[in-house]
Amino acid sequence: MRTVGDRARPVPATPGRPDATRPVSLLSARITFRLHRRTGQVCLLALVLSAVALVISLSVGAYPVPLPDVARAVFEGTGDRLAVHFVNQERLPQALLAILVGAALGISGAIFQSISRNPLASPDVVGFNSGAATGAIAVIVSLGGAAGAAAMALGAIGGGLATALVVFVLASRGGLHGVRLVLIGLGVTAMLGSVNSYLLTRSSLNNAQSAHVWLVGTLNGRGWSSVQMIAVALALLLPAAMLLGRQLRMLELGDELANGLGVRVGRARITLTVLGIGLCAVAVASAGPIPFVALAAPQIAVMLTRSPGVSVISAGAVGAALLSLAHLVSSQFFTALAWVGDRVGWLKLVDDSQRNNLLPVGVTTAVLGGAYLAWVLFKRRGTGRA
After folding, report:
1. Distance CA 321, CA 319 (A)
2. Residue 55 neighbours by CB distance under 10 Å
3. Separation CA 121–CA 109 (nearest Å)
4. CB-based contact 77:273 (threshold 8 Å)
5. pLDDT above 90 as % of the chain
6. How far is residue 350's CA from residue 327's CA, in Å, rounded to a whole number?
7. What pTM does this model have?
8. 8 A C-beta contact, residue 182 and residue 196
């Protein structure tokens, strides 16, 4: 506003320079979203990091492939037969899956943290990942080798929805409170961990081994079927998350204020809960219960964008970057240890037979998650809030 005497009049927008926060029309005049310049920059940076991690992941490994050969293998399908196989059939599906699973977990975490207004209320903390894992394990144990990606996805979605129903019913008595949701979710997670252990003990050795490896959270051995499944899920659920983003931001203000602004709180919360459970369940069915990403990605996005609330788009982009980088670190962990041992000489960190092993990405994200929680607690020391 520009003041002239006692009168104020709006400053006209400069032609050719749209306001960074002006609503941008999508599809029709009734569907709009606000595009903040810093949020766009953070999303672009996260996508660039994801692309860099993807390219490096295609090149390095037990069978190194030069970048020109990677380009020929991806875009033309020509070159050395082993290079084409490793790039197109093993590394590319896993790298793409890291991006898609990270995005799904980041958006899911943003939804649940906004609904509960608690930065710790992510799917892996409040039990939804454990419930999805229980449903998928039940499918693995009952069907064994016949359990396909679609059957595991249905089992994971069913387990996640059932767990969410139990947690929200128990936490909503007297109003939904973030602290109560986290505490009840932790208790449900502990109980579901016992259920998962029991299911493993009642299954055959082969099924138990398959389920145990999957429970760690890994992208190793995943193929194009998993990529197609989560790509279809994101194509359906991501637009819905974007359209409901405005209601999600209003729910962060509290139920009474959101209701006064025209939001049907009950219906919006149920719709967003089902949407978040669907995203986290498909991610769990694709790669197992990977920790940390859904917890940290939304808060890192808030810190980088300097926004007052959680944005599903920035959280998804940051989640994709986090899991892509974690996948790259996991794939080269034993190789890096072997390289250090070779340079030091007397220090033997990895046997030669383990040099080309792949560390499950869930182990890497769990370590990073512990460091993140320690940082959060250190930052909030003396405030009286955990």
Report:
1. 5
2. 16
3. 8
4. no
5. 13
6. 20
7. 0.82
8. no
